[in-house]
Amino acid sequence: MKYTVTSRGDKTSDAIARKVKAYLHEFELSHDKEEPDIVISVGGDGTLLEAFHAYSHRLDDTAFVGVHTGHLGFYADWQPDEVEKLVIHIAKTPFKVVEYPLLEVIVRHNGERKSERFLALNECSIKSMEGSLVMDIEIKGELFETFRGDGLCMSTPSGSTAYNKALGGAILHPSLASIQLAEMASINNRVYRTIGSPLVLPQHHTCLLKPKNDVDFQVTIDHLTLLQQDVKSIQCRVAEEKVRFARFRPFPFWKRVKESFIHD
Ligand code: NAP
């Protein structure tokens, strides 16, 4: 099996990453940064987001596992003192894979420019460069509402515990192949009206966001911020691709939610 190790880059994470590499070398596993079967990410959930984007072109052939050097994470669920155990698992046992849904985002531009396609593990957020964001929201080809407010956030189920949660969105179990649209401070009065609740869309529903006046936006895909100019539409749906996590022991999603947000 071929592996690679990524690190958040702080002293502790780098030291643990070196330890993991040394152990795996002892087990005679081959290090392959270009085409790994497994990526061991050491840091936090943010580090795993970066690892995901580094290998998003080979999701069918790469599985991820995360070691958390801070508090317990959603994607990074192994503790530093468990690293030896994890390495033995990687070296000795064929791992089980758990697949989580991803968000596909296609940005189309006015004029000749080619459309751009992105995959998000957590979410895509859209904000205006200046003033309020005003967009028509179409669901399955039908106009649903005209949104006016600070911004919109379209998240995956595993991303529902991140930005989406801060916006009052629901926490979705990652076995649900769906995406969730959450509002950021919508303007609601006698002139403007939005639904006000987060919407959960199934796999076969596409959401199309069409600018009403401004065409330049700040779009984030997970930790990446992109300036998108001259936008005609932003299309969001559940991606065909899935992310694969290597699971060596059960760690139920609701236990992770409880331990992260309620108590250990
Ligand atoms: P950051 O601002 O440095 O950290 C964002 C925080 O979100 C970190 O504590 C990170 O955990 C945590 N996180 C990431 N994915 C998560 C998930 N799926 N469930 C629960 N917590 C999660 O930014 P970053 O490290 O580059 O991460 C980018 C993410 O930040 C975005 O995808 C977005 O979800 C999130 N974000 C949140 C808010 C908000 O809550 N108001 C605003 C903007 C962006 P670790 O410490 O383990 O890395």
UniProtKB/TrEMBL annotation:
Gene3D superfamilies: Probable inorganic polyphosphate/atp-NAD kinase, domain 1 (3.40.50.10330), Probable inorganic polyphosphate/atp-NAD kinase, domain 2 (2.60.200.30). The keyword Transmembrane does not apply. It catalyses: NAD(+) + ATP = ADP + NADP(+) + H(+). GO terms for molecular function: ATP binding; metal ion binding; NAD binding; NAD+ kinase activity. InterPro entries: ATP-NAD_kinase_N, ATP-NAD_kinase_PpnK-typ_C, NAD/diacylglycerol_kinase_sf, NADK. NAD(+) binds at D45, G46, N122, E123, R148, D150, A185. One of its GO terms (biological process) is NAD+ metabolic process. The active site is at D45. Pfam families: NAD_kinase (PF01513), NAD_kinase_C (PF20143). It is found in: Cytoplasm. Its EC number is 2.7.1.23. Keywords: ATP-binding, Cytoplasm, Kinase, NAD, NADP, Nucleotide-binding, Transferase. The keyword Kinase applies. Belongs to the NAD kinase family. HAMAP family: NAD_kinase. Involved in the regulation of the intracellular balance of NAD and NADP, and is a key enzyme in the biosynthesis of NADP. Catalyzes specifically the phosphorylation on 2'-hydroxyl of the adenosine moiety of NAD to yield NADP. This is NAD kinase.
